[in-house]
Each structure stands twice: as C-alpha cells, then as structure tokens.
Write a structure and sequence with these properties.
The complex is a heterodimer of chains A (143) and B (148).
Chain A: E1 2-3, H1 10-31, H2 37-45, H3 52-69, H4 84-100, H5 105-114, H6 118-141
Helix pairs in contact in A: 2-3, 5-6
Chain B: H1 2-21, H2 26-33, E1 38-39, H3 42-62, H4 83-99, H5 103-111, H6 115-138
Helix pairs in contact in B: 5-6
The chains are: A mainly alpha (143), B mainly alpha (148).
Amino acid sequence: MIIDWNHFTPWTSLAGGVLIGIAAAMLVLLNGRVAGISGILGGMLAPKRTDIAWRVAFVAGLLAAPWAYLLFAPAVAPRIDAGFGTLIAAGLLVGLGTRYGSGCTSGHGVCGLSRLSPRSLVATGAFMAAGFATVYLVRHVFG
Amino acid sequence: MMHAATSFAAGLVFGAGLIVSGMSDPGKVIGFLDLAGNWDPSLAFVMGGAILVGVFAFRLARKRAQSFLGGAMRLPTSDDIDRRLVLGSAVFGIGWGLAGYCPGPALVSLGSGQDKGAWFVLAMLAGMLIYEAADRLVHAPRQAVHGE
C-alpha cells in the first residue's frame, strides 16, 4: 500500500468531520431528526409529504454552503474525472441504492455509527467494500 | 418556523464540513477508495471527527423523548439486517466508487454551480423516484423508513 502524502490532509479532514458531527448534533438535538441526506431527499419525493419544511430548509443549507464558505476562504476546484455517462449511471445507482438500503454515508456512516447501530455498521461495511471494489476494477483492471 | 431555521443552519454547517473535509471533491473521495493505488486515507479522519461529536449527541438524544425545540425525537427504530440493507448499500457503493459523489457532496456541488454535480443530482433524484415507483408496485402501502 502506497500512501498519497501529497493529498493527505488529516487535520482539515478531521476539522471538517467535526463540523459534520456538530451539524448532525444540531439536527437531532434541536429538530429531533437524523441528518441522513438520502433519507431527507427521499422524504421529499415520497407520496406522503408530511413535514416537508425542515427537509427543504436542510437541503437549502447544503446548497448555500459553498457560498458561505467563500466568505472565509477561496474556492477550491474539485477534481471530477467522471464523464457524463458515468455521472448519470452513478447517480442512478446512488439514488436507487441509498433508498433501498435506507441510508448513505451520512445516515448510516455518520449518524448510524454514532448511535452504535449494528445495522448501520453492516450498511457502512457494504458500501465501503463496494466502493473499494468498484475503484479497483475501474482503475486497475479495466483502467 | 424555528424548526426550519435550525434545520437550515444545520444544513449549512454540514455542507461547510463537507467542503472543509475534502468530501465534496470527488477526486479526493476516489483517492480514498483507491486502496491499490496512491491511497489518501484522509476521509477516514472525516468519519472519525464526525462520530467523535456524534456519539455524544446521539447518546443525549436517546435519553430524551422530545427535542430541545419541543418536537418529537425521531430516531430510527429498525434493527433489521436483511437483504435490502446489504444489497441497497452495495449498489450505493458502486455508484459512489464510479463518480466519487455521495448524496451530500453532490448537493454541495450543485449549489456551487458545477454542471457535473447538477447532472449527478438529477440522475440521483431519478433513481430515488424509480425506487419509489418500484416500491409501490411491489408492496402494498407500507410504513416508509425515513430518517437514516
């Protein structure tokens, strides 16, 4: 295993993680809701649209975040290697999979593990393993 | 109204965390998932930092019947480890590995005006709608599992 020291950012990643934890804490302690992004989005699309206001507000906060960030630091250009076909396929899989599996990196990975939920531990293991395997196949077998 | 304001603030802080941590950069996510290449372990620190705070928040939340604003405390109740949990999560992981986007960072990317982020979000919402439609075809109306 070779560590990519040039891109390794333990401190900013830890600090960003703490911010994510604070946000999840705010939502559960103030609103009584779990900060799972796929669940929040899914609840907006489900036929029974109850309590939609907090969902829309949370998503609006996520959408506004890059603009708020610009007040403190310059924008960093993301590296997006995927072409449009791959993006569409990936988006469909992420949408389907997160709803079928009842959660994503935030709901299972952050909130579920924070709740010490065995169910979320299994889900996190499954999506991490699938992510590792997919990148291995794309980069080292077919790449 | 108060609930919407605190929810917006939480979304804002969550998004800022995704940007500061590097999660909103698909290249960094794929660098983390690329164990066999030049591996960037940073994102393990994101999860570590979030759970460090989250453990205390959820421990406190579990002891309360109501949130601090007075609404019901809605924590997930399911503890089923079944095929849909594993299969769904694996399908999500494949999509995550293909593009480097999961739902939160994709919304942040859309917010910053990235056209690639916008296309991903459109496809993701389509995937969620396909799930809703298929779910309604297969099952009789069933209690939906939200909030994870």
